[in-house]
Amino acid sequence: MLGQLFTPLSTAAVPLIYGLSHRALLRLGATSHERRLAEIRTHYYFMPARGEGNLPVLLLHGIADRAQTWSFVMRQLTAIGPVYALDLAGFGLSGFPPGQRYATIEQQTTLVQAMIREVIGQPTLIVGNSMGGWIAVRVALATPELVAGIVLLAPGGAILRGRESWEPFLHTIELPDRRTVRKVLRQMYGRPPLPLYLASEGLRSMFRRDPVRQFVAALDENALLRPEDLRLLRVPVAMIWGEDDYFIPRESRDFFCANLPQARVAFLPRCGHMPQQQRPREVAAFIREFARELAATSTPKRTDG
């Protein structure tokens, strides 16, 4: 009987958590917006700047996640400037590219570029977790004029030894059973809080949706980041790594640190793959300090709209 009740309750827990975080963001002063960008119905949250900060901040979540992942840090970042948290294509309340049930890294990059050009309107500090960090690098490489700097939280997308390096990760996120779900939670959070275990079936359903499964099936090795890509970056870079992050290949941290030797880096003990949820105060303080360094060396200019 308990087993029969667990699955529907666990599945319902994730929408409940997201609903609560949505209302929490609105109570904190965020507003919810929809706009068509790059032919995609796009949703994002916005919080106005507090004080005199005028550097926009754009927050990008990881795979199978959504904009509410930033609910613990979003208000703390308004001291920097106006803050935007984007639902990437196919996730949260954002739609898909026409005729598809997933979006490629190239399409996500185009979406973020459109967000900066058409909504934000000036060079932006991009903060990306996991896949969001991968996209932030791609945006900075393709259109550095849109980017004031990037902060990468446990970024994904490193080429390493090619697709074979990522096969264990790709197999794991198929989440074939509850045991694997519990393993992924430990990889992501180290010691996950009890509510996440209770929401394990909801997490499983998120990773088994088309935007994740079709993205993984169609993953093009050419979209992965190579050492020369990182060395070509011409914008300031900072990184945050959780020391207990076993979700993506462990070599990823060495890859990014070795090829971005000038980056400002923070290593957070007792933290996994989601620093913005596990250590929000430290993450927000680190980003604010990085933004102060950017402000001391440059003055934001409007982009061409």
Question: Strand percentage, roughly?
Answer: 15-25%
Alpha-carbon distance between the termini? 59 Å
Number of strands: 8
- Structural class, by secondary structure, is alpha/beta
Biggest pleated sheet: 8 strands, mixed
Task: Using the alpha-carbon principal axes, give the shape.
Answer: globular
Regions with pLDDT < 50 over 5+ consecutive residues?
A: 1-13
Strand line-up in the sheet with most strands: 1-2-4-3-5-6-7-8
| Order of secondary-structure elements | HEEEEHEHEHHHHHHEHEHH
Describe the structure.
It is built from 12 helices and 8 strands. It is α/β, with parallel strands linked by helices. It has an 8-stranded mixed beta sheet, with helices on both faces. It is globular and about 50 Å long. The protein starts with a helix and ends in an 8-residue tail after the last helix.
Structural topology:
Elements: H1 2-27, E1 31-37, E2 40-47, E3 57-60, E4 83-86, H2 105-120, E5 124-129, H3 131-142, E6 147-153, H4 163-172, H5 178-189, H6 194-198, H7 200-207, H8 210-217, H9 227-231, E7 237-242, H10 251-259, E8 264-268, H11 275-278, H12 280-297
Parallel strand pairs: 3-4, 3-5, 5-6, 6-7, 7-8
Antiparallel strand pairs: 1-2, 2-4
Summarize the structure.
Helix content is 44%, strand content 15%. The chain has 305 residues and is α/β, with parallel strands linked by helices.
Any key phrases for this structure?
8 strands, disordered N terminus, 44% helix, 12 helices, alpha/beta, 305 residues, eight-stranded mixed beta sheet
